[in-house]
Design a protein that fits this description.
Blueprint: H1 5-25, E1 39-49, E2 53-65, E3 70-83, E4 86-102, E5 105-120, E6 123-139, E7 143-150, E8 164-171
């Protein structure tokens, strides 16, 4: 037999490599991350008609359930309104937190930033409209009904009629 130090080092390297790789790949690969089990989807849809026009809103949201009483999430918003010659479009996003000190009570804080375009005939105005809503609601298993207040409300820049707004949140 031929024996040299170089081939024995290679053989030892291969044995160690195979041993380590079999240990690494033999780990339990069926263990599932619970991240997606803690994500809840929801949001809101609004539509309205009157004699002078139409308005509609769509706002999907995803929340991560950090604990039984606390969740944090992100959302998107889109709003369209046309009344006579006046038209408004807004789009943007939001960051939200939900806290349930007791099972049926939900406290919320939501920061929303919307890019707003208003037009009246040939006049067109664009601006960013921030809102910081603090809310309280009654919570069931899959929905919350409540009221929220925009602490950053500005009569000239806000797209909402007033700082108070009722809400309904659904979760899936």
């Amino acid at each position: 037999m031929f024996y040299n130090k170089q081939s024995s080092k290679k053989l030892l390297f291969y044995i160690v490599f195979l041993g380590i790789s079999s240990i690494v790949f033999a780990q339990n690969t069926t263990q599932k991350s619970d991240f997606w089990d803690r994500v809840r989807f929801g949001g809101g849809v609004g539509i309205g008609f009157n004699n002078a026009g139409f308005n509609g809103a769509l706002s999907p949201t995803a929340y991560y359930q950090v604990s039984n009483s606390f969740a944090a999430g992100v959302g998107l918003s889109g709003i369209y309104s046309k009344v006579g010659d006046s038209k408004l479009t807004a789009y943007g996003g939001s960051l939200a937190t939900l806290y349930n000190p007791i099972q049926f009570l939900q406290l919320s804080a939501e920061f929303e930033q919307l890019r707003v375009t208003r037009s009246l005939g040939d006049l067109k105005e664009q601006n960013w409209a921030p809102a910081l809503f603090l809310g309280v609601g009654y919570r069931t298993n899959f929905a919350t009904v409540g009221i929220r207040y925009d602490v950053l409300y500005d009569e000239e820049k806000s797209i909402y009629v007033n700082p108070w707004a009722p809400f309904v949140r659904f979760y899936f």
